[in-house]
Amino acid sequence: xxxxxxxxxxxxxxxxxxxHATLMASAEQGVEVVALHVHHGLSAHADAWLAHCQAQCAKxxxxxxxxxxxxxRLMYKPGKGESIEAWARQARYRAxxxxxxxxxxxxxxxxxxxxxxxETFVLQALRGAGMAGLxxxxxxxxxxxxxxxxxxxxxxxxxxxxxVKRHRLKHIDDDxxxxxxxxxxRLRHEVWPALVGAFPQAEASLSSAADWAQEAxxxxxxxxxxxxxxxxAGKGLSVLSLLALSDARRSNVLRAWLKAVTGRVASAxxxxxxxxxxxxxxxxxxxxxxxxxxxxxxxxSHATASPVKASPGQREQKLSIKRAGVHKLPGWHGHLVxxxxxxxxxxxxxxxxxxxxxxxxxxxxxxxxxRPPRSLKKQFQAAGVPQWERAGPLVxxxxxxxxVPGLGLDARVIGLPGQPQVTLRWxxxxxPA
Length: 433
Ligand SMILES: Nc1ncnc2c1ncn2[C@@H]1O[C@H](COP(=O)(O)OP(=O)(O)OP(=O)(O)O)[C@@H](O)[C@H]1O
Prior knowledge:
Helix content is 39%, strand content 22%.
């Protein structure tokens, strides 16, 4: 059997160009190409795109080029509240992997180019990402039996455009690429022209910044591996050895360890809580998604949760909120969503040592600036908040009630314009991954 390479082919300009270039090179080298198309079912044009891709591949095959075509229709839709972009990305990679393996291709080429990389860097920076996020997309990565390669990550968008023109390639234009509800499209259409106007080298510089971040990320991972060796104590970590490290190394090694034991990236809130609270007391515990972190006899360890539901005793009582994001509170069966606002929010500084409490009765809540504080019960009734929306933690800071699920922020904690501030929202039940 001839060696086979797969190309992820959306039918758009970039992947059309990459598929064509791969096909030309493969024909010379006796390699077979399989074009993989994912039908997301999100656009009214999705059927037409699939038909276009299939027809294009059939045309090339008729010319004697070594190409096969495979497509998969996604049969499920994003969940309520789920980001469409994130869902589509995850589902797409799963489908591409399945099709590649079915066609015995372990190498899948993606058509991301230098501008995609530069955009990714900016989007990650705007989310306040750390080194891993700023690293952008890898040129080559092995995952789940597939080697994903982006051969054009150093190729500019203009070069891809010129290739398409030179070979008169037909491609589709995805209408969702202009939908400015998506962050990447807003960046592309509203920010990028001004950015490149002012800084013509932006694409090259930003993608080179992503390269530096990739290198730094490798160093951080190597440092974490070394530090892990040094602080390990049985199945856990020695708190004393952890405390001997600098704050930065301690959080770096904690992140690496948490990822290893939970299988997920730890939230910034959890890591900063551990940094703050690890030194105090002989024993402590921190509930996390699927278990608990415990400090006992000088060792920090992780225990997986038993399948029983969290009881009131397991509800988190403290939360350190230092930035916007989603703070999962499995003990309360939900999560707090923290969003930056310009005004009408609580100063972020207030929430660094927030307390989470049950309703006890007698709490007073002030709904507006010139309204008197009233009992929570009356406020819930006045605002018509149904019982199930009242569940969740009351958030306090320094003994002052800050936030009540179903009612929002207490007027007494609203910050002055100009202060960094946030709003809170409680979402019960479903917790995003
Ligand atoms: N529906 C799809 N089916 C197969 N591969 C896809 C699909 N969507 C994206 N890809 C792959 O992922 C790459 C990046 O996709 P993305 O949508 O971010 O970029 P794009 O600029 O729209 O690319 P293109 O111009 O090729 O559509 C594509 O170039 C392609 O290789």
